[in-house]
Target: THUMP domain-containing protein 1 homolog
Amino acid sequence: MEPTNKKSKMTNKYHQKNKKKYYQGNKQVLQAGQRGFFATCNINEKGCVRECYNLLNHYADILYGPELPKDVEKKESEEQKTAGETGKVSDDDDDDLEAAAAKCRETLTQRKVRFQNVETGTTNCIFIRTQLDDPVGLGKHIVNDITTTGKSMSRFVLRLVPIEAVCRANMPDIIAAAGPLFDKHFLKEPTSYGIIFNHRYNQQIKRDQIILDLADLVNSKNVGNKVDLKQAKKSIIVEVLRGWCLLSVIDNYLESKKYNLAELANPSEKKSNGDNDSKSEEKSVETDAASPPAEQHAE
Model:
């Protein structure tokens, strides 16, 4: 009986391991080339994700109209037809067909969802991937509306920052991703800028190095660009989360309370509550004592 029990236990462990791998493999994770919205919270990450969905879908429906099921179905049928035609050519290989079909289904599923939460592996840091071409435009609309109405529509979301690019957290990849962004924001007319740098669970990217390299890149686009730490017209957002770097360039970021939704809704309470909220946020987003959060500005 003993060998049978051992075999049974080994079989169960094997199935559990495969099941775990299956669910881990189906999780949405940060990847290079994504864009979306970076959100921070103090508690209740699930509540934060839910609020992000509500906020983003609410304002996206206002700006772009709701996603129409008919449009989605039309795209789906067209792409399935294309996949089917491709499949006829490579009829001989069932494995290739199945892999192509699975990839097609995954692509269609992603396209159906305008916003999708992805794993960051970092406490109290949420990333919502988007299929929209311009997350910054939607972010500005949200900020302007909250400032006007005084209603943040959130309890758990602290900051909601649009992100234009995601890349690996190493200097060559960061510079490569920043190049096209800086062409868009710093090439035509001279402007003032500041660099806001945060890192969590990463000690490889050094503050001085990234600030110097990014500042050199900005100045190479237009020699008239100048650093302004207090009233920068454009802020370069650099958020390093473990092995990933989130990049964005946002107009009037400092003036817009660094996209802190509570401060935007209640500007009069900034002095009494704003500083405490910011400190609380910084403490909450980093639990690794060896890698404290840091928000740095170019000098």
The chain has a mean pLDDT of 81. The beta strands are 36-41, 115-118, 125-130, 157-163, 165-168, 192-200, 226-227, 234-241, 244-251, 296-297. The chain has nine helices and ten strands.
